[in-house]
Amino acid sequence: MFAMMHDCFERNIRYLRLSLTGACPMRCTYCRPAFYRNTDRSLMTASEIESLVRYLVVEHGVSKVRLTGGDPTTRPDLVEIIERLATIPGLRDLAMTTNGLTLERMADRYADAGLMRVNVSLDSLDRDQFACITGVDGLERVLAGIDAAVNARLTPLKINTVVLRGDNETQLPSLVNFAADRGVAIRFIELMPMGPLAEQWADRYVSAEQMRQILQPVTAIWQPLPQGSDSAKRYKVVLRDGRKTEVGFITPMSCNFCSACSRIRIAADGMLYPCLMDQPRGSILPGLRPRFDPARLDRLLSEGLAKKAAEHPQRGFIVMTHIGG
Ligand code: SAM
Ligand code: SF4
Fold this sequence. Notes:
The chain has 325 residues and is α/β, with parallel strands linked by helices. The protein has one domain (13-323): Alpha-Beta Barrel (TIM Barrel), CATH 3.20.20.70. Helices cover 29% and strands 19% of the residues. The strands form 2 sheets. It has an 11-stranded mixed β-sheet. Strands 1-2 form a two-stranded antiparallel ribbon. The protein is globular, with a radius of gyration of 19 Å.
């Protein structure tokens, strides 16, 4: 029987978001500052990652793990990492968030290795705008990747769109149409003020309420869905032409979901982030190196968790590409 980890506000920890690397070929304007240099030193190895996750799942009842980054697909040993994690008994949900660039080529391999589902970032269906936001002329590859992931049954697949004022906000109706055509869910994310990029936040932020207004011309019925463990407010939406899709809003700024937070984040270098927008609370690497030391790992985890804030600060401490969103 496991002993559930909890913080000092009695929130149980069930969900690990694990960044595998700070590396990413994209440079999304809201995520990765132009001067950001990836300092992937001392990354956890595939075997250390397996020991860590196995311990959290078997001893502490974590049941959901999301691989993120940077882009997790830039890790040369990603398939091995998935294979190792997929063998862990009790891990009910093994998912990955990616920019989608490798999915056309690799979706089958990820699925065969044991990955259950993917979320794919897609901020625009306009090729030039996509390139402007991400720094990569990769729209077609990402669209082909979404199709490949659906064919490989990495589902339910969700599209993630960060909405930016004066930029991709006019794309929302096309993106909802796209999701309905492909039979996938879409979630619109409120921009978060992270690290030095927080300076541009006030000019670019669009609230979920405003996003819903932008969608009004193409949508007819909004039926709320149970929230469950999802951080998104989800709706079954009937479009004006009768098609249906699922639309979610992730509202960290207009209506935070901190009181129900069940997450911890660990970055590729072993730093523990009990809250996405707060400071790191120490490294768990000494519990994994030079050899796996469960007592030490437990101490480091509970010391870090004791500092998990009741609510996230108004401004993020570090850039998103380092922690993985
Ligand atoms: N590279 C992968 C991707 O883009 O999906 C995984 C890492 S990315 C940091 C994870 C998620 O964080 C993406 O959905 C991205 O859109 C979101 N994100 C990045 N910066 C953000 C910000 N400032 N505010 C809100 N969401 C952000
Ligand atoms: Fe890379 Fe994802 Fe950040 Fe874009 S959002 S720069 S794809 S890590």
